[in-house]
Amino acid sequence: MNTRQIQNLLDYLGYAPGKIDGLDGTNTRKAVKAFQLDFGGLTVDGVAGTATQKALRHAVAYGMPEKKQTTDDKDSSATSGKTGTFWDDLKHFKREEMRCPCGKCGGFPVEPAENLMRTLDTDIWEHFQAPITIVPLPPNDPHAGGSGVRCQTYNDSLCGSVPNSRHVQGKAADIIVRGFSGSAVKAYCDSLVKAGKLRYCYVIGGGNSVHVDIL
Ligand SMILES: [Zn+2]
Ligand SMILES: [Zn+2]
Question: Taking a C-beta distance cutoff of 8 angstroms, is the pair 120, 93 a contact?
């Protein structure tokens, strides 16, 4: 990865690297350091070498690893990681995974819809019993499709996107269920459409990614 790509991934993960300018400056180094510390098992030196780049890709695709509790933060264990929202109930998804990847809107111009996330976390996850990824997008790639939340500007920049996309309303997600084809995922999601839990679903470009949305 080049520095710009590294900055994009850091930004996507919420580690403000400053301006996405392809320059390995102070802000970028600070963001790399913060990521290395949070991810764990990496040398915390602010240099995005091979191991850190691998960790970045992993974090974008699968989220950050669960934090191991150290003796230092025992006191805060009662409140650690709790948001006081429905996200606390979800076993398999974190809010960050739904972030708009444009790098300009702050990631959440709208909040992901609770009903959508609950359907993903319970019905779909429990049916397949396999990891589900919210399709991570290379930011600023006009030919990419997918993701969770999108700001209007980012949505409009995607090829083939509709202006009133439910992604803009936080009511859609594009998912990959590991080990299952798009058509297998769609077949089950169709049953959720019939049951009124989803509004609509389709396989994206004949691949493994499936778009699901709610009313
Ligand atoms: Zn955006
Ligand atoms: Zn979609």
Answer: yes
Task: Report which bound ligand comes closest to the CA of 147.
Answer: 2
pLDDT (average), residues 33-40: 87
> What residues does each domain of the chain span?
3-62, 71-213
- pLDDT, one tens digit per residue, over 91-136 is 999 998 999 888 889 899 999 999 999 999 999 999 999 999 998 7
Q: pTM to 2 decimals?
A: 0.62
Tokens of 46: 């602010």
**Rounded to an integer, what is the distance from CA 87 to the centroid of its chain?**
14
Backbone angles phi, psi at 118, to 5 degrees: -70, -40
- How far apart are the CA of 19 and the centre of ligand 1, in A? 15
Dist CA 210 CA 134 (whole Å): 10
Ligand 1 midpoint to CA 129 (Å): 31
pLDDT for residue 37? 87
Domain at 3-62: CATH architecture: Orthogonal Bundle (1.10)
